[in-house]
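Quick start: what a row looks like.
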Amino acid sequence: MVLMNRSRTEARRSRRAWRSRTGVRFSSALRHEWFLGFSWATSVAFLVYGDALLSGLEHPLWLVVIFAWLFGAVLGSALAVVRHAEHLAVYLGEPYGTLLLTLAVTFVEVTSIAAVMLHGANNPSLARDTLFAVVMIILNGMVGLSLLLGGWRHREQQYNLQGANAYLTVILPLVVLTLILPNFTQTTPGPTLSRAQEIVLALVAIGLYLTFLTLQTGRHRGYFILANNEEDALAGPLRAPRSPGHPALQHAALLVAYLLPVVILAEQFAHPVDYLIETLRFPAALGGVIIAVLVATPEAIGAVRAALANHMQRSINIFLGSVLSTIGLTVPAIIVLSELTRHDIVLGVEHSDVVMILLTLFLCVVTFGSGRTNVIQGVVHVMLFIAYLALIAQA
């Protein structure tokens, strides 16, 4: 009898302890995922009251409020998507982890481009402006800031030269074929490609990206590691630690839960962006810059953190991998979208942008040609990024 009472007491204690642990985990999840409630509340608000909320954009203060509200909601959701994709990447391993990270970021970018491109007046140059902005923001702004802050704290930083060369070997032809070659083709007028040429470009982009992914996660994985440090063997955002309290299924559910508001809010965000460009006559390239900032910010945070922690190899894997995935996957997706919706797209950059992109590519070859980085290289990239912003402002 005594043994039975003791067994019952221990069972009750075990149940109370389990409920307590469950409650703590649930409370912790609520604290960490509070933004999910904000993003869904924003989505519901614009789905139900969108016409009323977007009807007063002619008032400058209200335009700023709506723009900041939607921009913050989309950016916060994108940051959460990348965070949970990082956790899943740890569980899945390579190459599936890298592919998931890439697809998550590409999905956000394609969704944002499609929402703005299909809303309002036809904007055939939006995809080009976004791709150009992503290249300039990452290869000048993100690279410059990472090298500047990392070099300022650690004087000189090292990375695997073979890995950087592998990235640039694929990035250079993809950028030139996508953003410069259309200016010189004669099949169609202007900086555009014919349908057959677009199909070839899409196949080349996907083929090169998949080849690089195979190299990176297979026989040449060591190219992307410095001094056999497994922590640096990443291609994408900063590696997330394995979290025993958050199983893979939970991260997958939260990733989807954050992705849905991105889809909903991207369409709503197209309204203030179009109003800025079409009504207030802001530079047309501004739409591409805004989308590029949404896409690049999560990875920029990871790259700068890695550089400050003296993990330059990890930082390089982030920003060069980001450019590669943007060109290698976003371009085919936009080409398919334009064919399905019968929206023309302009790909070739023009005038001073051609000089800026060629100068950027040349500077990257010089910067990542020695295996070491320092402050001066970061300063040069930052200054080139400032010149890019000045050219947009004067457009």
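That is the whole record. The first strand starts at residue 157 and ends at 158. The longest helix spans residues 60-92.
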